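Q: Is it fine to ask for two folds in a single conversation?
A: Yes, each is treated on its own. Send the first.
Q: Here.
A: Result:
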Amino acid sequence: MAHLTRFGDRRGSIAAAVTVLLLLLGGGLVAKALTRPEAPAQPPAAEAVAPTTAPPVAPQATTPTTRPGAGPAKPSSASSPDFGPIMEPSPPVSLDIPSIGVGTKGIVDLALDKDGKLQAPTDFAKAGWYAAGPTPGEFGPAVIGAHVDSKSGPAVFYRLGALRKGAQVSVHRKDGSTARFVVDRVARYSKADFPTAMVYGDTKGRAELRLITCGGAFDHATGHYVDNIVAFAHLTS
């Protein structure tokens, strides 16, 4: 699946760009429903409540399509004395989530195509990282997405919905370091009302991670799941 399907839009170029990222990522990271009866694990549905602070302002892209930015600069210690650990930028190369049996290597870069659509991993056995955003461990919300399934069976994030608070997530990086995260929560949101500002909003000075795939019921008419599953995590070391 080389291109993803657009789901809705938002007013304003910045909000629209962020919506393209999240809705396209969540909306497209799925192939056809499994032919076997089992369905992916699902977390409880969540009410999408926007944060009280505005989402970070995204800079204009150098290409005709506006892209979400890498987040604001790291705040000064005078305004927020406890940020937690922050790492220097370095792209991810592999991902381990022991509690749900995820161990994938060769994380691919995800980008927007000329039509402003986010490309999904072409390999169902690999996860993808939105390369225009923060790297995992860097200040801001890094995003890693993967398919939930394919016609032949489960994909990388098939059990993402079974992830629970306190679970460990390790992202191994190109510079040889490992960004270790702890899951804060996992929720399921309707694609029709995806909480863009919540997912891409102010991280309060922390380095955070978002893991995204599809979930909920499968709509045979559209060939897509109706919800998104999002895991929120923060850097611990």
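Q: Second one now.
A: Result:
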Amino acid sequence: MTSTETETFETIRLTADVVLIAAGHVLLIERGWDPFEGMWALPGGHVDAGEEVRTAAARELTEETGITVAAADLREVGPFTAPGRDPRGRYVTVAYTGTLPERIEPTAGDDATEAVWWPLSWLPELAFDHAAIIRAAVESAA
């Protein structure tokens, strides 16, 4: 680096999201607070210090929907890293997908005010880049 160049540091936060699919439906939560309060989103959230990302995905799924899927049963879709994907700052998420043989009744919890199975063929407007994450998960399963 020359004396005229400067380094720019950016705080990057790590999250995990889950695309849980059953019988042609995807499980979504209604967000309980900003950003995107009242909008539909995938279950997910921050990775805790010392926690594996896949473990965080399974934990967040259970906390927000009451549905438990073992971390080992979640398949990685991949990282989503675009700057600006979250209005709070730079967030990188690793998305996972899982499949259930049938829909289980969800129970909203944590920062979710509602948890609902939506038909993949008719999704509401989604928060963040969650529509792209769902598309990637469905394509990776094909």
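Q: Anything structural to flag on that second result?
A: Two points. The chain has one domain: 20-141. The chain has a mean pLDDT of 95.
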